[in-house]
Predict the structure.
Amino acid sequence: MEPKPTYEDLEFHIQELKNELLRIKASEERLRLAIDAVNDGVFDFDMKRNEVYFSPRYYTMLGYDPYELPAGRETWKSLLHPEDREKAVAFVDEQIRRKQSWSLEFRLRTKDGKYRWIHSRGRVSEWDENGNPIRRTGIHNDVTERKEAEFEREELIQQLNEALKDVKTLGGLIPICSSCKKIRDDKGYWNQLESYFERHSTALFSHSLCPNCMDEIYGKDDWYIELKEKKNKE
């Protein structure tokens, strides 16, 4: 006859079953996340054990080998760009305190020392009996190309706005001589019409003669008379 199991044996067996159930739940959650984000990096952070699972895509996204990333909460914090670290960590902690999911963007350091823009979506997937978070899961998506396009667009808009500030427009009364057509500036000096407009607007002048002026200046010259007769015949 086999010996009757002791209370300690039963307690140990029950704990093993609980641990196995937790491992199964974790595997199911990881599978669900992987299906939802084939091209994204998946993380699963066991806060009690301070252990983090990263999907293969997470490593390739940042260029690391599995053994090169530190374990636990410090993984994410150590990879964050110094300018993003305090704000990103505080935001996630606040969302956890409110028991809400989070979505934010920040930069993570890659193996070659550069930074990639990441869109992070996550939530607390498990709480203990006292309402404390014990497991966080989520997805990291590389959005560097989109962010760079946004920055280029913003820079272009800024350049356009600066250019618009430099555009000069004319308005109000412009004092002009009724005879020679010179324009008086705000300092009392008389300027040629074209030089005045070039200083006070973005317009540039090209010079030519209108038909009336051509007749007045060259009307008695033989070459001009012949040219006009030729044009009239055409």
Observations:
- Helices lie at 7-36, 56-62, 74-79, 82-97, 144-166, 193-200, 211-218, 222-233.
- The mean pLDDT is 79.
